[in-house]
């Protein structure tokens, strides 16, 4: 007979505090999402990007309703999701800093022939169509089907740089010395 699972009542903090603490200790890859709905480009740093499927290439990410770029993302039919390496922490900080012109340094970005903004230093980037959104309380979940993929990490023949990871309110990287086993 299977043992019954028991759940104990939280003893410290609210459920929200416990949720935040749990995810603070759960590392996440770092991405920069850009879009331009026609009235100027926006960018935001995201740690919620995940692969959904490889055929067709599909990714998902969430955007907080409090983020200044979310209204523009909701008006956009296409986005570019930039997957960052540890060498692109400057791009992660750029997308995470509010109240600045994220596109002031024009040496960091270009427009693709299709019009989307791409930060050329990103380890990999996925340009795609927004194929769906789902409101989720104070955030929106975006589904994006990739139409074009670029960057050195997208080339199976090239060596890759260590990824940028966010953990416990700080930027980190992974490497061969952090590998536990094969």
Short description:
It is built from three helices and twelve strands; from the N terminus they run αβββββαβαββββββ. The protein has 182 residues and is mainly β. The mean pLDDT is 91.
Mean pLDDT across all amino acids: 91
Rg estimate, integer Å: 18 Å
The termini sit apart by 36 Å
Give the ordered list of helices and strands.
HEEEEEHEHEEEEEE
| CA-based shape | globular
**Uncertain stretches:** none
> What is the helix fraction of residues, given as a range?
10-25%
How many helices does DSSP assign? 3
Largest beta sheet: what is the strand line-up?
Answer: 3-2-6-9-10-5-4
| Class by alpha and beta content | mainly beta
Q: Tally of extended strands?
A: 12
Beta-strand fraction estimate: 35-45%
Largest sheet: 7 strands, antiparallel
Key words describing this protein structure:
3 helices; about 180 residues; 7-stranded antiparallel sheet; mainly beta; about 15% helix; about 40% strand; 3-stranded antiparallel sheet
Protein described:
The radius of gyration is 18 Å and the shape is globular. The protein has 3 helices and 12 strands, in the order αβββββαβαββββββ. Helix content is 13%, strand content 38%. The chain has 182 residues and is mostly beta strands. The model has no long low-confidence stretch (mean pLDDT 91). A 7-stranded antiparallel beta sheet has the order 3-2-6-9-10-5-4. A 3-stranded antiparallel beta sheet has the order 1-11-12, with no helix packed on it. It starts with 14 loop residues before the first helix and ends in a 9-residue tail after the last strand.
């Amino acid at each position: 007979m299977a043992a019954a699972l028991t759940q104990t009542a939280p003893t410290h903090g609210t459920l929200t505090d416990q949720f935040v603490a749990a995810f603070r200790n759960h590392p996440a890859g770092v991405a920069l999402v850009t879009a331009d709905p026609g009235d100027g480009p926006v960018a935001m740093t995201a740690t919620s990007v995940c692969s959904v499927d490889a055929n067709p290439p599909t990714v998902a990410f969430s955007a907080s309703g409090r983020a200044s770029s979310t209204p523009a993302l909701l008006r956009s039919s296409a986005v570019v999701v930039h997957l960052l390496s540890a060498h692109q922490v400057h791009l992660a900080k750029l997308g995470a800093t509010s109240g600045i012109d994220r596109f002031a340094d024009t040496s960091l970005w270009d427009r693709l022939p299709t019009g989307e903004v791409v930060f050329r230093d990103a380890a990999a980037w996925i340009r795609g169509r927004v194929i769906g959104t789902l409101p989720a309380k104070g955030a929106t979940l975006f589904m994006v089907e990739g139409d074009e993929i670029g960057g050195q990490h997208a080339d199976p023949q090239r060596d890759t740089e260590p990824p940028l990871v966010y953990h416990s309110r700080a930027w980190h990287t992974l490497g061969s010395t952090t590998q536990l086993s094969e």
